[in-house]
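User: Predict Receptor-type tyrosine-protein phosphatase eta's structure from this.
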Amino acid sequence: MTTSHTVRLSPSVSVDASVAWFSGEKDPLEANMRTLSPKDRSCILISLALVFVFNAAEPEYFLQNSSFSWDEARNKCQVCFKELVTLTSSNTHTIAQNLTSDYWVGLRKYLDLDPDSDSISYSNGSHNRSWSRWANGDPLAFQNWYPGWPVLKSPLPKIDCCSCSCTCPAATTPGPTSFTGYTEFTTPNMTNFSLFEDMTENVTDITGFTNFTDQNVTDYTTTPRAQLLPIEAECVRSPMLLPEVPQTDENYIEDSCVAMLSFGAWVEKNCADHLPYICYEDRFFGKANVTGVTVASASLSWERGPGDIDHYRVEVNQQPLQNFTNGLSLELSNLTAGTGYSVQVFAVKCERDLNPQNVTFYTKPGKVSNLRVVQNTNISLVIKFELPEGNVTQFRVEAVNDSNHNLFEMVKSVSGKTEEVKIEPLLEGTKITISVTALVNGTVEGDKVTIVNYTAPGPISNLHLTTKANSLNATWSPPPGNFSSFTIKLNLEGKTEQTIKDRREPNQYFDKLKTAANYTVIVYSVSGHLYGPPVECSKFTLPLPPTNAKVDSSTKTQLSFKWTAPENIQTAKYSVKLESKFWNHNLSFEVDNITNYTFRNLISGTRYNFEVRTVTEDQISDAENISHCTEPDKREISLSMLCSSSEPLHCANDNIKESVFQQLKRRFADLFKDQVFWELKKQESENA
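Assistant:
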């Protein structure tokens, strides 16, 4: 197993405009650009633009301490990472800080980018020009060579293509003026040299240059000079010696690879040398996703990792699952309802976890249970329910009518295992659909639990009672809203005497009632099993008079009366009165539920008129009357009358005496009548 050290950099899109190069040489990229056609230059510019775009990825760098050849190192990077590192002005400093020795990087003099090729190509195509591209295909936009590197192959001398020279003796007379010129050949990997055209020695053909197409030719001319014409010209062929070829630098490597020194500079090394190496890989930014979330499960899926992934490892709330998977999905089960979960999916590549794909979610909370209505009124409903197992932070209560019009909605935080909510105001006598939904995290909803119930109908109005001695009639106005029937109760002294159910009409007649009784009528409007608020009214039946009033006893100063109570009376109250017209005396009392009364402190010998009536709170019966006299306390008063007449013996006439006596009797009768006791008797003799 190899060991690695990871250096993570923030994404960068900057490119260093200053390119370090070895002393005395032009930038080969610039030189190559001059030799390219406009079409090829366009391709290069497009490539540079792509460098800017794709540099937005966040690379990660891995220092591999095991030593391998460049090809082996590259292969290992391609298997476990992406490629050997591509160096830029942005990452060189950070990477160099972590180096302890020389490391292979992803630059080779001649690199075959054809993934189907097993060998390095040395063709002169633009893609295989030396030091032109990194191993990942990026153009060489940055260089940081150690001084003296790269080592270039020594150039061959430039010679004329002719194989002989001609020498003529000089003329003694002036001849025509001529010019001497030379041509400068420049190649990317050669120093400049000149070939003079006025050489007169024979030369031998040489075919050691194969890259003339990449040369730039510049013609130079010299100042004209005088030439001596030969007297007799004769050309003599002679062999031309080859120029001395310089020896190749001992550090020159035909197919070299680049190693980065511990302080960041580059040098060439033999690609077969074994060195540690630096791999890189763009930080993997995948995204996990969950679907089909229930109270206890969820379907997890994720994106495929880059390259050859060994397997995927899943952690739930930082706890790793035991089983690895090679697929891109996993069913999560045995979860807790209403619970937040943080899931990380790690693509494992060469025993290395890539950047995790993250997703957070909440399982659905469970359903509330035992939802019920515990109280109905005409304008409200009170519900109770138990919260589900697992986690619940809030619950939503909604109420709608038959038209699905929202009547009530409330979101409330939980306060206990059992919750109670009063839903108001609601319409009277209305069918109400109530739903309760458990919530978690404010937005994650469980399944709704729904019940149907009714508000009670409204109260009746205008209840009116009409009574007679033995009957009662009740009338009222129906309530607004919906109702199905009425229930009427008739109470007497707190006890229900009659109950009438399913009454459709707004009235009810009761008969065979007790007289002078205080009856209470209670009326309910009914809708289904619900009763509206009760409305009640009380009234006495008309009282019947007592009967059989009589004197129970009498004395000189008191009278006792008794009577018989009316028939079918519950509890009676009586009004008793005693009156003496002669003395202008009036006595009045009320008695409860007794049928006798005694009047005291009366005047003897006086006739008293007695009456008794049955009374209620607002009504009174006819009177039962009787009169009686107290016992007299008798006293005699003598009355003498003197008769005188002009007629002799007129007063002695018996008829005259009787007439006067009757007149006197009538006088007393007019005065006392029968209101007091009195008697008038004629005295027969003076001694009687």
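Residues 412 and 593 are 61 Å apart (CA to CA).
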